[in-house]
Design goal:
122 residues, four-stranded antiparallel sheet, 2 helices, 8 strands, 7% helix
């Protein structure tokens, strides 16, 4: 598996939060239908039964080729995962593309629905 530089940034097309762009720098092509994984580097979070972590293979909402590399748009199922907190070291991999890279998960805005305070009725 090749190591690539990966950037993760808020999706500018979704100002309401809950969406991000995962950019695989220098990657020109991925097989159709390629999935990605986000695995914690910290073994304490690497329990496949832990609730709140986006375990397993995920399909991007959209994949597009740019001058910088392949961009995968991801949604709330990833961004809003409770254990995927800003500052968490992770490995992002695309097994079908045979690429991976380590990053520290950035501070991506959560979905607006998660940020609203509950309304208490009295």
């Amino acid at each position: 598996m090749s190591i690539v530089k990966i950037d993760v940034l808020p999706d500018p097309a979704k100002p309401g939060g809950g969406h991000a762009i995962i950019r695989l720098r220098g990657v020109a092509l991925l097989p159709p239908g390629a999935t990605f994984r986000i695995d914690p580097i910290d073994e304490a979070l690497n329990d496949n039964h832990a609730d709140g972590w986006p375990h397993g293979d995920h399909h991007p909402l959209e994949t597009r080729q740019t001058a910088d590399g392949i961009e995968m748009r991801v949604g709330p199922s990833i961004v809003d995962a409770p254990l995927l907190e800003p500052g968490t070291p992770v490995t992002i991999s695309v097994p079908d593309g045979e690429v991976s890279g380590d990053i520290v998960w950035p501070d991506i805005p959560l979905s607006n629905a998660l940020l609203q305070a509950p309304v208490l009725m009295t």
